[in-house]
Amino acid sequence: MKFLVVGVGAVGSVYLAFLSRAGHQAVGLLKKGRALNSICVEGIWGDFVQEVRAVDSLEMLNYEPDVVILTVKSYDTEQALKSIEPVISKGSLLMVAQNGYGNYEKAVELFGRGRVLLARVIFGAKLIDYGHVRVTVCGDDVVIGDPAGVVEDSFLKELAGMFSRAGIPSRHERDVYKYLWDKILYNCALNPLGALFETTYGRLAENPYTKSLMDAVIQEAFEVIKAHEIPTFWNSPEEYRKHFYERLIPPTKDHYPSMLEDLKRGRTEIDALNGALVELGRQKSLNLHVNQTIVSLIKAKELFNLP
Amino acid sequence: MKFLVVGVGAVGSVYLAFLSRAGHQAVGLLKKGRALNSICVEGIWGDFVQEVRAVDSLEMLNYEPDVVILTVKSYDTEQALKSIEPVISKGSLLMVAQNGYGNYEKAVELFGRGRVLLARVIFGAKLIDYGHVRVTVCGDDVVIGDPAGVVEDSFLKELAGMFSRAGIPSRHERDVYKYLWDKILYNCALNPLGALFETTYGRLAENPYTKSLMDAVIQEAFEVIKAHEIPTFWNSPEEYRKHFYERLIPPTKDHYPSMLEDLKRGRTEIDALNGALVELGRQKSLNLHVNQTIVSLIKAKELFNLP
Predict the structure, then answer these.
(1) Contact assignment for B294 to A293 by CB distance below 8 Å
(2) Which residue does chain B place closest to A288, by CA atoms?
(3) Dist CA A250 CA A140 (whole Å)
(4) What CATH class is the domain A2-174?
């Protein structure tokens, strides 16, 4: 299979390096003016340096990929979707492997049902430097599926198997959209507070005041989930909170959110996380006070951190 | 006149040093086990070292003060009021020279109307070290009055004149309670956000996201003011905001909140500021969402900063 990896940050570097190492044809799409010949990988999935192919413009691409893997930051999604439109219109499938709400939805709006796959990525990768990535933690397999139910299960299983054999543990799930929301909830509760206090997930859960704020974030998120009839694994905020504190946090208790690194650089994905919850709430006349305040705090910090 | 200064932190050190220098009898009441022979003053009101008298227990005090000046942190108010009860019951007047809501109110509850004066202190003082204080800024005279209207104006004018002649610019105002609320609003908007972001008042007002949060803090404060019929100089949040951004912030734009120093030491006066607004709201079934979230953030940070 042939791949195009759009966005060669932390997650994109992992896909490009592992797929290339496994002998697949894979090309990275870089920002204009950039170049990249190899990727240095380190961390829990092994240490190696892999030669890779990358271009800074789609016009330089001399093949038609079967799957385009989208890994850009959420605030770059619209621009990235526009740039790959010529490729998708020739028949490539798009796999959205990003954080938060709104990326998959925008892609489906543009390219239609059956053309867009969703991947819930829950391994942690940190870009040490351009072309140098560390895999820090793996919460679960990458879960791949077509929320629209159009793409054949057999193809999705094959795709997941291929990623797994290349070294990125993956599986197919029809419920992928529920998995995405599971991660959205996790990220909305932990990322902004972890970034603001520059602390770990474990310490956020131990501190009764950050715990009460996370409880409120989850409570408000479920108001939105209910109002929009979004499918989830959880029937109530209480059910999710039990899962969150007892299952999700313990194995990642020493983890710092990637939003902390993003914040230091002055731009985060808050609009696709708590900001998306606030916007979904607004559509149903719900005021998500705590999420709104947290969004303002992160955006304030983004501005304060700009050079 | 004879004075007892209860609490010898930043503001207490200023009162004890300036009153002693002017030749008044003044004694500082220290925490148990502490001793203090002199205070080093620096800053905008001059630099000098002044010998002072201080005791760590009221039993060691061999005179009856005319006025007891209360300058302890708000979280120590109840304990301090209990400790000075014997002195007040013998006839001393209490002057509450603290930050926030609830200190004056608790004192009146305990000692009755006509026994408690209120001082709105709006000069900035920073305790460099125990017995070493810097006066950094002076927003306005200390405003002194009896909100209950029992104590004679002539006495209050005399008291204010005496403080002024001692070097602490002061004046009497019957509306002192309105002045207190003016400062509560100012502190609730600026202190917690300045402490969280470790930034100046000017930068908080320039950043549109912290500005929107301060607007919301003020909006919610006016819901409480209206519900409790608290007397203020302002008929609406809009009127106060105009005063706040155009009059109050410009001369203090380079100022950092004292709450930032308090937060580093692990304990702030948030309960007497935004926490008091939240509690006053609760009494009238009002939810002050933004203030409540800010209280939780500051309390979270207090805990994270504990050794």
Answers:
(1) yes
(2) B289
(3) 14
(4) alpha beta
Position B300 confidence tier, pLDDT thresholds 50, 70, 90: very high
CATH class of A178-305: mainly alpha
pLDDT in tens, B122-140: 998 999 999 999 999 888 9
Are the beta carbons of B195 and B298 closer than 8 angstroms?
yes
pLDDT at B307 exceeding the cut of 80: no
Which of the residues of B are catalytic? Answer: 183
Residues of chain B with CATH 1.10.1040.10: 178-305
Return d(Cα A226, Cα A80) in angstroms, integer: 31
ipTM value of the model? Answer: 0.90
Task: Give the gap in angstroms from C-alpha A93 to the nearest C-alpha of chain B.
Answer: 39
Q: Which has the minimum average pLDDT: A58-62, A105-109, B44-48? A: A58-62
DSSP string, A270-299: GGGTHHHHHHHHHHTT---HHHHHHHHHHH
Q: Dihedral, CA atoms, B28, B32, B33, B35, nearest 10 degrees? A: -10
Q: Which of B103, B132, B99 has the alpha carbon at shortest distance from B258?
A: B99
User: What count of residues does chain A have?
Assistant: 307
Q: d(Cα A179, Cα A233) in Å, to the nearest integer?
A: 8
Kindly give the pairing relationship between strand B38-43 and strand B48-51. Answer: antiparallel
Residue B156 has pLDDT above 80, yes or no: yes
